[in-house]
Amino acid sequence: MKKQKIVLAPDMPELSTENLYWATIGDVRCQKIIFDLIFHGVKAMKATDSLFCNSTYDLESAAFSLAPQFLPIGPLLASNRLGDSAGYFWPEDSNCLKWLDQQQSNSVIYVAFGSTTVFDKIQFEELALGLELCDRPFLWVVRQDTTKDANDACPEGFKDRVASRGRMVSWAPQQKVLSHPSIACFLSHCGWNSTIEGVSNGVTFLCWPNVADQLMNASCICDVWNVGLKFNRNESGVITREEIKNKVDQVLGDGNFKARALELKEKTMSSVREGGSSKKSIQSFIEWIKA
Fold first, then answer.
1. What is the per-residue pLDDT for 172?
2. What is the pLDDT of residues 191-213, one digit of tens each?
3. Interatomic CA distance for residues 158 and 145, integer angstroms
4. How far apart are CA 93 and CA 193, in angstroms?
5. 149 or 258, which is more confident?
6. With contact defined as beta carbons under 8 Å apart, do 185 and 261 qualify?
7. Which tens digits make up the pLDDT trace of 143-158?
């Protein structure tokens, strides 16, 4: 594939052909399967009058101008329904909320990579040592399959050294964590659900995308909304402990990131209030059904 940059519309982030959704997943055979799935999905979408999506006009106005059949009705959050999230991939550790209660306001780095991200031993150790080097409180979601053997993957003595300020859990009630006042920033793989949850809670981001839409989402976060920073990899493709500390210090040391994040939160959450664009989309759909 020829390497080039694509800009679908003004005010949309630049996309490299290397990072096209299907080009980042698996081997050539798997990429062909994903491409065919997307191709047929797009054909099906063209046959519809409208499609709902978990977003808002304020977040992606350029994209919705390009594809007006999409109707954003987000953010779709359990907190908007006065309920809890459902369909967990792993048993939640709600005790981490009590731990967060004991931390200072705007102090904790929340680290979570969704349900599928897997690290090799070298990268996992660099992440652990990076969090240690930051010398800040952190809540780190480490699934049993995050690496080959999550129980033995941590550097020797790491858990003892960070015991007073770090907590590791296998799964967390993420929406409740992100809304907690102790959270300072979200170190994320930038899956869309995590992105919309972080934006809706006014947190700043440290972006660690790996595949598919995560790369475009990270560009939105860093290049369009300006509420976070991306990590850079070294010549071996590793995000080093020094790079982690450097980006954490940058995001938390510059109050403009937090100010923009809070502004974006207000715009995003206003969409589901009375008179907001997402609220109007739902109401119009209901009226169409009744007619």
1. 92
2. 999 999 999 999 999 999 988 88
3. 19
4. 19
5. 258
6. no
7. 877 776 655 678 889 9
Closest Cα to residue 125, out of 241, 232, 208, 207?
241
Cα–Cα distance for residue pair 97/87, rounded to 1 Å: 19
- How much of the chain is helix, strand and coil, in % rounded to 5? 45, 10, 40
> How far apart, in Å, are the Cα atoms of 78 and each of 81, 86, 87, 199?
5, 9, 12, 15
Q: Torsion angle, CA of 278/181/207/20, rounded to 10 degrees?
A: -20
Residue with tokens 């869309």: 192
Global confidence as pTM: 0.88
Q: Reduce the DSSP state of residue 140 to 3 states and report it.
A: strand
Fill in the amino acid letter for 118: V
Tokens 């994903």 label which residue?
34
Q: Which residues, at least 6 apart from 26, have a Cβ–Cβ distance to it below 8 Å?
A: 34
Q: How many helices and strands, by DSSP H and E, does the chain display?
A: 12, 10
Contact 134, 108 (CB under 8 A): no
Q: Nearest to residue 187, comparing CAs of 231, 217, 145, 241?
A: 231
Q: Copy the structure tokens of residue 278.
A: 């997402």
Among the listed ranges 61-65, 223-227, 228-232, 248-252, which one has the minimum average pLDDT value?
61-65
Name 52's bridge partners.
Answer: 71
Distance of alpha carbon 122 from its chain centroid, rounded?
Answer: 23
